[in-house]
Design a protein that fits this description.
alpha/beta, Collagenase (Catalytic Domain), 6-stranded mixed β-sheet, 5 helices, 8 strands, 25% helix, globular
Length: 226
């Protein structure tokens, strides 16, 4: 019995064990790829900023929650090979941003709600709402008062939004903000995170195969069609 358990663990390690559920995704598609992020608090300013010096926001002392969240949105939207598009839910639903496809009706069953909470939690937590095998809603709560630093906020919310779009905790990698073992300094998507999002929401690209291929858990890359 012990040998069987060890052999099973060995197989999980060599084949990779990223815990991406191909059915746990939103009912969106390449021609209609939008999800909206609705903030309970848009205007509060962060009290601390410990972002690294190479970050464009590093010296800012007037960063609002909405502005910080927009950088997370931009990070997800910049993924080459993924059609997923995030957008902030407008403060005034009658005046969305120019070029936005937002309507209240369109955003139903496509919204990630984010609010602070008085409950004690380790950073934040995400919970899903389903219809069948599709996600139709996601709620993120983060601990009130624990996110005074914009760096901590970006790290926690990038991670929790990852859960909302369908990512889980990879078991064999530290190269992911979704990992339990991630460096605390990470606050943007890493290579495994990006590959997971591309796998769930693959953009049609000539010559690119988004299907999983066994790499013995040792590499992570696109495979060209043969």
């Amino acid at each position: 019995m012990q040998k069987l358990l060890l052999f099973t663990l060995f197989l999980l390690l060599i084949f990779g064990f990223r815990l991406i559920d191909r059915f746990q995704k939103w009912n969106i598609h390449e021609n209609d790829p939008y999800l909206w992020i609705k903030l309970c608090d848009r205007s509060t300013l962060f009290q601390e900023n410990t972002l690294p010096k190479e970050d464009p926001l590093t010296s800012r002392t007037d960063i609002s929650i909405a502005e910080a969240m927009q950088t997370i949105v931009d990070d997800y939207n910049s993924l080459y090979g993924s059609y997923l598009r995030l957008e902030l839910y407008p403060a005034d639903t009658n005046a969305p941003a120019e070029g936005s496809t937002f309507t209240v009706d369109r955003a139903k069953k496509r919204t990630i709600d984010i609010c602070d909470s008085d409950l004690f939690m380790a950073g934040g937590q995400a919970s899903w709402e389903y219809e069948g095998e599709k996600i139709v809603g996601c709620t993120i709560r983060y601990q009130k008062g624990a996110m005074n630093d914009v760096h901590a906020f970006l790290s926690v919310l990038t991670h929790e939004i990852g859960h909302c779009v369908g990512l889980h905790h990879p078991q064999e990698s530290i190269h992911a903000i979704m990992s339990y073992f991630a460096n605390r300094e990470l606050y943007r998507l890493q290579i495994d995170d990006k590959m997971g999002v591309r796998y769930l929401y693959p953009q049609t690209l000539e010559g690119i195969d988004h299907k999983e291929h066994n790499s013995m858990g040792m590499s992570c890359h696109y495979r060209a069609y043969e």
